[in-house]
Amino acid sequence: MDIEKLKAIREKLGLTQQEVAEGIGLRRVALSFVEGGHIRMRDEELNAYAAFLSRKLEEIKQIQIPQEVTREDSGYANSAVNS
pTM above 0.70? Predict the structure, then answer.
């Protein structure tokens, strides 16, 4: 999985590492290490990350970055995490 795509989507959505980490059950420092390429995510963590961004992992694999993504497009604006 191309973690750069997940990071790019997170940034385009205006989400912090802290928000995503809390949403997928990781510590922010762990997510930072993942996004920095220092450690790899397990498949279930990748799926959780994609789901948090309201995407399927297969969909993310096909995304070409840069792509216009907004909070409204992701469904994040309507998620329980945002309330």
Answer: no
